[in-house]
Known about the structure:
Oligomer: heterodimer
Low-confidence stretches of chain A: none
Bound molecules: iron/sulfur cluster
Radius of gyration of chain B: 20 Å
Strand content of chain A: 15-25%
Number of helices of chain B: 13
Structural class of chain A: alpha/beta
Low-confidence stretches of chain B: none
Strand order of the largest sheet of chain A: 4-3-2-1-5-6-7
Structural class of chain B: alpha/beta
Largest sheet of chain B: 5 strands, parallel
Number of helices of chain A: 7
Helix content of chain B: 25-40%
Distance between the termini of chain A: 19 Å
Mean pLDDT of chain A: 96
Radius of gyration of chain A: 15 Å
Shape of chain B: globular
Order of helices and strands of chain A: EHHHEHEHEEEEHH
Strand content of chain B: 15-25%
Helix content of chain A: 25-40%
Amino acid sequence: MIDLVLKGKAIKLGDNISTDDIIPGRFAHLRSNLPELAKHVLEDAAPEFVSKVRSGDFLVAGKNFGLGSSREHAPVVIKMSGVGAILAKSAARIFFRNAINQGLPVLLCDTDKISNGDELEIDLTGGIINNLTSGVKLGCSKIPPIMSAILKEDGLIPYIQKHKDFKL
Amino acid sequence: MGKTLAEKILGLKSHSEAEAGDIVIADVDWAFVQDTTGPLTIRQFQNSSFAALASPERTIIFLDHAAPSPAQQLSNDHILLRRFAKEMGCRIYEVGDGICHQLIAEKFANPGDIIVGSDSHTVTGGALGAFATGMGSSDVAVALALGKTWFRVPESFFIEFNGVFPRGVYAKDLILYLIGKISADGATYKALEFGGEALAQMTMSQRITIANMAVEAGAKVGLFPSDKITRDFLTEYGRGGNYKPLYPGNGAKYERVIPVNLSQLEPMLSLPHAVDNVRPVTKVKGVTIQQAFIGTCTNGRLEDLAVAAEILKGEKRHPGTRLIIAPASRQVLIRAVEKGYIHSLIEAGATILPPGCAACMGLHQGVLGDGEICISTANRNFQGRMGNPEAMVYLASPATAAASAIRGEITDPREFM
Ligand code: SF4
């Protein structure tokens, strides 16, 4: 089971962050060495990210986060870097599914209401983001029940180990 | 109420009514991985303590992205994949056999099939009327073991093609134009369904180019109906018996209808660093290029090499421009040799790479230097895509890439026709 209430600081990114931005193809040779690969997360798009991120921080992006390649290594290295959840205006479908399958929450909301460095508290059950810095409360769009169930088990593999099958 | 193609296929495969918005569990006909996402898929499969594949016959591993491998780590990943194939008894295609999506089209995809692959351009199979979609390693690992997966039945956009391609305009120009219109996230979670009277003249190779790039508009699938052209293609590739007609029902509900008149199109480009940053070639020509790359799952087929060879025959690449060409499959290469295309291309100064992804995703065989510009027939031009964040990639048709290679700058292919 994952924690249902998360607290951390916002790290803001722009629109259209692709999975090539998150982990460029030139590091394909490191894909079977995840700790090494994780050192390069967002290296071109946000060079300071790796040194700045603290455990529990939130990645707060604009629209179409995670577009492009299906590489699941993208949410894997984001999670490894300590990020507790991704907040975006919209997310590409393969990335969205991959992140949930890795037990990494993705919440779709109006991220213009969040500034870099804001302290946020997220209630995953209710889908509410409480911006402790600005005092603004944000709702998020709902995800299908099967995705919530997978997320609650901390990802698809633990989910399948427990249930042996998909449960609708 | 008529059903969309997406609803029809998902309904049949999930034994349910499958209306847009429903969540269904559907049987998977083909599940595959490639060499950069396959190792994680196999580890996820093993972490789940699955003992066997649901169907080894219907599981395929492709060694295409790092082919031949440029690094010891990637060679070791290949060893892992080969060993898994041997232990599990599944199919494997080796270095030099070709790109996964091309081989899926040549050998496996059938109308009405469900195909999942750990590669975003799995949508390519939609050209043959297969509900084919890309997923990550965990989803594919589970599909390998259970023979099924869950889907949200997508809403569909109907893209209606009319008219005929003018001289110098190809399927690539059409899909770039369409992505410019829809935008890179305009069809997120949706199905693109193609139709209209122009389909009767649209070859399978052109359909593959279009379906391949559906994901660049965010779509889950890019579906063509299954018609006479599908039947002829399946027959040519020795599985005519798998043909079945497949059309959307009358009165199917579409979220959007987008008409496109092919007759009004012109050669198009995607400018760095976004696929939906689309302009006509006439507005961009004159940009100096250091490399032209013709190949990939989008445009590495025989028809593409034929167009390039016709333009390049008797010409020479510009001395300041490297011209690299990678056929999409072994069979494409063999036929291109037989037809003399490869001869013309080599004489024009091309470097021919082995069938595979080659320079497409920046891990080998044509990585760009700082500040260099490449015109490429691939489907993505994100910053860093060809191995260097300081370089730039313009996407174009094989004709535009070939003409540009001769001049050493972005060139309208109609100047060579
Ligand atoms: S050719 Fe390019 S886009 Fe196609 S599968 Fe290979 S790397 Fe991906």
